[in-house]
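re: the backbone from monday

yeah here it is again, tokenized this time
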């Protein structure tokens, strides 16, 4: 019987990863600019999460420090979404999502340089494998790629950088408010992100108009399934799974995003590209396993 909770946790994380794998698909289906799609993801997500918090009676008074960390976390998440949505428009859902997951290596580097953490041999092996996989995906045809496609790769890597900052600050926010529920923290970050993205749209004179039913449906699905349900399912299942199994299961998300890109948007993909995808995902998994561990105090 003890295996049943573990199985349900595994199913929960798998379904959550599947929900989030469609994030890039919903973005690709929209015709609004990247900043607008990013805004509505967190704007709709905020209200879905608010409803959950009210239903579960999970709401708290905020101290100034907690509010400031929440705002900073929201700022980095807003930058992350803007870069990722721009990358999706330029290079497609699959590659943009794989590039965003390079945050594994950035976080490990931060841990090594600034947090006194150590790196395992698995991580050192993962770096050249990841670079080799990325080369097979785009590097061998770099000269023939258009300017927008190259910028899409740059924005994808910037996504990884901003996402790393978001995760580090989110960890700090959770340390500042250990009694806050996951839903409340995610609601706070979503609201802060919507605030920053909305201010940017207003400052640049951009339109908030959602032009048609397809855009409404895609943006609502982005807020409900990606910003709310996917995160909730993963957060609910992760604590009861081994770290190695969690890392492996979470790779379903970038893999499925690439598959959806091929299936729904006819991404041209050669055998070498698939080898590159496989190698990159393997490297990401090794990177997760070989991520930093705190050094014991002497």
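seq for it, each position gets an aa:
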């Amino acid at each position: 019987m003890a295996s049943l909770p573990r199985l349900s946790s595994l199913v929960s994380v798998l379904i959550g990863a599947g929900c989030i794998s469609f994030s890039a698909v919903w973005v690709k289906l929209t015709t609004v600019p990247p900043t607008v799609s990013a805004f509505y993801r967190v704007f709709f997500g905020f209200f879905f999460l608010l409803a959950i918090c009210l239903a579960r009676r999970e709401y708290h008074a905020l101290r100034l420090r907690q509010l400031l960390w929440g705002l900073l976390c929201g700022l980095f998440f807003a930058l992350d979404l803007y870069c990722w949505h721009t990358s999706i428009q330029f290079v497609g859902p699959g590659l943009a999502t794989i590039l965003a997951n390079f945050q594994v290596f950035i976080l490990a580097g931060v841990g090594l340089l600034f947090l006194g953490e150590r790196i395992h041999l698995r991580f050192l092996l993962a770096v050249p494998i990841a670079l080799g996989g990325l080369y097979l995906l785009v590097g061998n045809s770099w000269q023939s790629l258009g300017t927008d496609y190259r910028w899409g790769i740059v924005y994808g890597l910037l996504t990884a950088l901003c996402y790393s900052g978001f995760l580090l600050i989110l960890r700090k926010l959770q340390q500042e408010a250990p009694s806050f529920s996951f839903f409340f923290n995610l609601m706070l970050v979503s609201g802060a992100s919507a605030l920053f993205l909305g201010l940017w749209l207003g400052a640049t004179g951009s339109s908030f108009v959602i032009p048609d039913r397809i855009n409404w449906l895609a943006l609502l699905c982005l807020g409900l399934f990606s910003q709310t349900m996917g995160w909730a399912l993963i957060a609910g299942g992760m604590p009861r799974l081994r770290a190695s199994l969690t890392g492996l299961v979470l790779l379903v998300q970038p893999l499925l995003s690439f598959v959806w890109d091929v299936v729904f948007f006819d991404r041209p993909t050669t055998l070498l590209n698939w080898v590159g995808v496989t190698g990159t995902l393997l490297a990401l998994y090794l990177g997760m396993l070989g991520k930093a561990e705190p050094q014991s105090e002497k």
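The radius of gyration is 19 Å. DSSP finds 13 helices and two strands in the chain.
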